[in-house]
Design brief:
Layout lengths: L4 H10 L8 E2 H7 L6 H9 L12 E2 L13 H11 L6
Parallel strand pairs: 1-2
Helix pairs in contact: 2-3
């Protein structure tokens, strides 16, 4: 994989989120021991060229809304991927 050290840390963590589960950008930031970097986590997700193999679609906003998606199809595709995993986001 090609990316910055921070991006690689985020992307590697994303691979551990089980199918059918979601985490918030803040939860990912805390998990990688960078608790104040939720925005940077969102940016790393946005730069993920490996979607959906690296499942950034499983990361949502803290308010429970969808957030963005860098893969082909944008947020519509993110919603479809989550729906296929039995996850329904408002």
């Amino acid at each position: 994989m090609n990316g910055t050290n921070f991006q690689l840390k985020v992307w590697n963590y994303l691979k551990t989120i089980p199918k059918g589960k979601v985490k918030t950008y803040k939860q990912v930031a805390i998990a990688i021991k960078r608790p104040k970097s939720a925005r940077a986590v969102a940016n790393a997700c946005g730069k993920n060229p490996y979607a959906p193999k690296i499942p950034c679609h499983r990361v949502i906003r803290s308010d429970g809304s969808l957030g963005g998606y860098s893969g082909n199809g944008g947020t519509l595709k993110k919603r479809q991927l989550l729906k296929s995993e039995k996850v329904f986001i408002k």
